[in-house]
Amino acid sequence: xxxxxxEEEGVMASDFFWSYTDEPHASRRRQILSQYPQIKExxxxxxxxxxxxxxxxxxxxxxATLMHNSGWLKMLTVAYFFGSFLNHNLFLAIHELxxxxxxxxxxxxxxxxxxxxxxxxxxxxxTFQKYHLEHHRFQGVDGIDMDVPSYTEAHLVTNIFxxxxxxxxxxxxxxxxxxxxxxxxxxxxxxxxxVIQLTLDAAMVYFWGWKSLAYLILSTFVGGGMHxxxxxxxxxxxxxxxxxETYSYYGPLNLMAWSVGYHNEHHDFPRIPGSxxxxxxxxxxxxxxxxxxxxxxxxxxxMYIRDQTVGPFSRMKRKACKSGVTTKKGE
Length: 331
What we know:
Layout: E1 17-18, H1 25-35, H2 49-66, H3 72-98, H4 106-117, H5 125-137, H6 151-156, H7 160-168, H8 170-181, H9 188-208, H10 210-223, H11 231-235, E2 248-249, H12 263-268, H13 277-283, E3 293-294, H14 297-306, E4 316-317
Parallel strand pairs: 1-4, 2-3
């Protein structure tokens, strides 16, 4: 792997793990396809994606209308134990759509992403796609992969208390980090995403009041913080084992999460929809059985907060050469 080990046991690191090899997924993809070419039959859109997204969007917007006159405690309870799962499901649907896994025509996926964005309350689907595809192409590359925390985050988040706050607010860090570290000029699609989202938000307030909109925003916020679904933010690439930089989760929440827990499989084959990722592991089990995986996202959050050796620096990074390709060991 080429990742540097921690110098002292029991002490949180003051820098990232640095790798001097390319990310592991492209090479594993080539190896698997050479041995199991039938995996290519799994490539392509999920024909049920549109229906699944529509059901969740309609259910969450309907629930928001029911919250128009609710007390704040009831609203928080419903948001945490119900709405948060729906909005996080839609966030991961947008992740699926960023890979064009609902329709063969890319623009249809973009429109569906804007639709899936509606109950989330804030426009993010178009911007997410721009940065997320770079995360796949340049995994861990310094200055490019905005999935990796900033040095500012890592230097501030150093103990149980600050890690707890960071977990609660991690959706904000996830969303705002690229805007500060690597801002991209907005285009027409960001404008469309913004206008449609603000129109929906305004309609919610006009017809059902501020509490209906507040419920949607609250569902997004709590679902992205100290919440079982949000454990995937940490489980996917935070390094608990220096010889591995991507981890899969094989627990039941994959049913609500578009199987994003199959994260090694997803990075190996981003053209396979979540509904079929389990088949990759079934077809080529020898490539995954030796990799560390998880069965609980809640446990990962607990481990992250309690383990004093783990923090925002617990990520694999690699330098980029001038051509934009990561350097090989010894170069």
